[in-house]
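Newbie here. two chains, one complex. Structure please?
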Amino acid sequence: MTLPRWLAPTLFALALAAAAWRAPFPVAPAFVPPPPAVADPAPAYFSTALLPTAAPSAHAAALAELADGSIAAAWFAGTREGAADVAVWYATLGAAGWTTPRAIATREGTAAATLAYARKVGNPVLYAEGERLHLWFVSVALGGWAGSMLNHAVSSDGGANWSPPTRLQTSPFLNISTLGRAPPVALADGGLGLPVYHEFIAKHGEWLRLAPDGRIVDKVRMPQGRRTLQPAVAVLDGQHALAILRDNDTGPGRIRVATTLDGGRHWPAADALPLPNPNSSVALLRLKSGRLLIAGNGASGRNQLLLWLSDDAGKTWHTAATVESDADPQAEFSYPALLQARDGRVHLAYTWRRQGIKHAVFNEAWLAGGTP
Amino acid sequence: MSATVLYGWLAQGVVIGALVSLLPLGDKRRIAGLMAIPLALFAGPAALLHGFVGTPSVTLLLLAIWQLASRAPTPLDRRAAWSVIGIAALFYPLALGLGPFDPYAVGYQPWPLLLAIGTLAVALLRCRREDWLLILSAGLAGYAGGLFANLWDALLDPLLALAALAVVVGQLARRRTAG
């Protein structure tokens, strides 16, 4: 069968016009600027508790504050990291303490929703946006964590029910190697900026710009001279933000830095912080006082979990507190997540000896050296 | 369930059918390929391939359909195969982190890519390659219809690059045998 000569070019012109019509033309990116700094007059406060156990091995907690003021935590747990029975678990902290954890993402559920095989799940990220609670998590079909694909689900009822997860298209090669670890930041256009990372062959941070409807409209690398992972971002003003990254290269590591001065369009490397990083995840938070807070491991390894403060937008840092310390180098207090609730209290969740997730609550007076 | 999920699953079923039709089954190869599609979809291989390699491009899907349905030679001839290999050889290393430039990111706001495709279309028209013009049109339509967040994903994927490599290697092997 011979097609008329005009048919192919006509169809092509129509398809090209339709693609051009659909191609996004987003406005220049900008962050929602942080609110003006305010001091917290509350007296020093500090408490810790282990979250209820979901499974023998737990890791990688994430935190969010729900619309009703309760704190939500998600983490992955199973018989061991990467096992087929690992699920993403979810619990909330209310007046009666932590609820019994519930599995909110499993490999079976993810496979059923995406019509695609999934071997394991991991690394949840939570973010509350009004009544909507976002969950990003990774699933792997083949290989290790470098084969991760990023999935997204939403709850409109505080985590009781979740939409079926959808898979984000973030990589051209088998759609693999995009992982999340730290929460997104709000953008001025109503979208979100989600810090993620890539670890197949090259290892570097990345920045996904999401439109208000969740569609990815840009992806930007965070180039560094060394292998880096797991960016965590704090917004300093409408155009300026700081990202800190896990140092995954050889030799003694330091917390690596990327900054943007144009709302996330570019993330050039900046000088590393004078803070150690033994190839482990770090968390970053801008406090209501305007100070920056980092949670991460000390030079000795994951057997020490520290908090560092900066009073000058990240130029200088000092140790604020030691949250955990154990002489045993095999002890692990890692993968911290930070959140400051609307009541001013700072929540820290972290992997506790791989046996569970520990939750610490404190305030800025405690960070300043006050005793509860 | 999203249209992208359904598309990816169904398209991988067709890809598996096309692969089956490549087996040396004589004049039964086409019917074997067609019968393999529901089997792949409902017995698991399509979901497995969907999990391993993600959503296939429209280009790959159309070539698979062509393989299953048409007696005409595949549009993925030697010249086209070399073009796909050339693009893939440049594209994938850069997109996976070799150097600072990420060509894949261009596909999220694909205005430069649309311009390049328009230029390519003019060249294809001059070469009388209406088959590839139609394939590109379908890829663009897939993107326009919201099946893909990134235009690159509608046009190119690693299985397509592998298929192109198989075409080139097969032709070289045949030439060597004939020589």
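Moderator note: DSSP finds ten helices and no strands in chain B. Chain B has two domains: 1-56, 74-179. Thread marked as resolved.
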